[in-house]
Amino acid sequence: MCWFVEQEAAGEAGFEDLTALVQVRMPTRPKLELARNYWDEMGHGRKAGMHGPMLAHLVHALGLRPRPEDTVWQSLALANAMAGLACHRHMAFHAVGALGVIELTAPGRAAMVAAGLKRLGVQPDDRHYFDLHAVLDVRHSAAWNAEVIVPLIEEDPRRAPAIAEGALMRLECGAACFRRYRDHLGLK
Description:
- By secondary structure, this protein is mostly helical.
- Helix content is 74%, strand content 0%.
- Helix 3 runs antiparallel to helix 7 (128-155), helix 5 packs antiparallel against helix 6 (92-119) and helix 6 (92-119) runs antiparallel to helix 7.
- The radius of gyration is 16 Å and the shape is globular.
- The relative contact order is 0.17.
- The model has no long low-confidence stretch (mean pLDDT 96).
């Protein structure tokens, strides 16, 4: 579990930062949902509620030292793909699709990690990042679909392929990551 959390932490691209980059010059309705999502990621202005530091708290509690040089390339590639999509305006709709897939897939994955951490005796305060995302991202995913993806496509259906391609990129990168994790851990 420690190795897995190190991989995840070292490859974390910062959902809040990606969301902030993607919202630039978006239409009003999607921009407002991106802002709400960002505000949740930023703990509604409270340091204790910020999601990034919650993951850092778990890393510290487990005594981990995530470093890129100890991180499998698939995890780094996933982070780089996300950052690359968000940082380039011509890939903004790809980034919307990729971030939307994160919100869609995070709850189940986070719930499994939280359950594993609980079985290992990790305290609730230390595993809060995964406990929170197991619940919160269900709501985020529904809002992302209704308030970001649907309005963008309704406004201009030509955006749909880019959004779908971004979603597929994120799914493919994530699948490569998990195949590598399973191989490393000897799971079939």
